[in-house]
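so my prof wants the structure for this chain in the tokens format not the other one, which i didnt know existed until like an hour ago. anyway here's the sequence
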Amino acid sequence: MEHINQIDSKVQEFLADRRSSGLNHLMIGFTSLGSAPFTFSLAAYIYLLGPASLFKTYISAILTGLIVIQTVKHFSLRERPFNQVLNDSYSSSFPSGHSAAGFLTATVLSGFYPEIMFISFSLASAVAFSRIYLGEHFLSDALTGSIIGITIGLLIPIII
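here's what i got, hopefully its the right format
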């Protein structure tokens, strides 16, 4: 675990030293794509215009992801990085819920629309990276959240 913490700290310091106002604004835009308001707005859009099977899968995945992420956060109680850009996070750092939401969304959407797989996963990667860049999460938080999102995105269609 100490080795992971060392890598997390080095990545955090590296990115913090390279922040700029323009990049901060770009990363804040990317991070919003993994937020609860965006995720639930997308679910509403899918409900209104998409196939019912996609809505059922997506909303089930979102709710499952929310339960899993919040449960792990409750028990991990990991401190967030000290050099945050936004300073508006209130829960445990581990794992990243935004990263989970981004990859969960990419996985579910790609299952229904394989032709958008590249763009979906590129955007999910940008969300996860933005969380690290903005100092909201460590690298291991974002990677774990991403893995959780992909796993839920793959399992929910099988389960329901």
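also thought this was worth mentioning. The chain is about 75% helix and 0% strand.
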